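Much of what follows relies on a compact textual record of a protein's fold. Each token is a code from a learned vocabulary of local backbone shapes. The record below shows the convention in full.
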Amino acid sequence: MKPKNIIIIAFALVAAIGAILVPIPFGSPAVFAETTTPAQSNQTEISVVVDGLHSPRGLSFGPGNILYIAEAGDEDHEGSIIQVVNAMSQNPTTHTIVNSLSTVGDEGEFLGLGGISVLGRGTNAGIYAIMSLSPQITGNNAFGNLFRVDPNGVVQNITNVGSYDFQWTADHSGLWEEFPDTNPYGVLAVPGHIYVADAGANTLDEVLADGSVRVLAYFPNEIIRDAIPTCVAQGPDNALYVGTLALVDTFVFGPSAKVYRVDPSQANLSDPTATPMTLWTAGLWPINGCTFGSDGTFYASQLFTNPNINDDFDHPMGDVVKIPFANPSSHTFLTGGGLSFTGGVAVAPNGSVFVSDGTAFVPEGRVVRLN
């Protein structure tokens, strides 16, 4: 089973796997020399919007250009949803609309909110947020739940995606050696549909209006580990684009994260492993969040871009990659590695890119704007 925090556990696996498969140190230039695809880099200005955060994860813009942040929390701070008004200005204001949405796991990691997505307008707007893992893994019934939160902070529990996927992976244990497992991580709410990327089950799910869950697609394993889908975004063609973490394979072979295109109308509900999908782009550093801008440009947060991270863990060189919809092989890093373990990413109506920075492994996180 791939339990607990997907980032922490995957890093811990690297040393053991590397000792067997790779005769040279992880992160040395030789490991990456033949596999890394050159990417353009822009030195974008980084402006702090909110700091002093505690494991910030998903980001989403809602009505009135309000930015919403999902915090997983830490040992001294509960998980929460934070509202940022005037996020595009020099003087944003913040307000916590709901908290008590996380806990510390038995291995010391912070378990709580991951993805967040806002749908609708005014008082009818719904803020959809997903909790990681499941009751079967944590013993806590809050985990794995998909919540709907209104702008006043009233929480409605829609369904437990984690419980459904834990059972689905138990029923399909032949797909991956660590099943049963689940870790709902990314969420996307669009008119008429709610989608969840489950990083533990390796699935793309849909939550229906009655709260039932169905698996639309299963993502194939990588060479060493499983795919670990972390985010889902809707493209200008209305198809879904799902980014993967591929963390351990990236340590061994160089940037291995992928983005798959899935048309949900073509989902094979009786056998999600047979759902058609297209490899839209590949050769990326581990993806931890993704979205599209209004012009159709795809953005993905890169957890790190430092090929020597095992020797220089204090400088992960997190980044956001920009990919034109019409040319998915063109990868432009926006900050030249100027961030640190990035998380969710969102694009404001004016085209400014916002990203969670310091989503793990740092004392305090922040949300920054890339100008």
Notes: Residues 8-38 have pLDDT under 50 and may be disordered. The two ends are 41 Å apart (CA to CA). DSSP finds five helices and 26 strands in the chain. The longest strand covers residues 110-119.
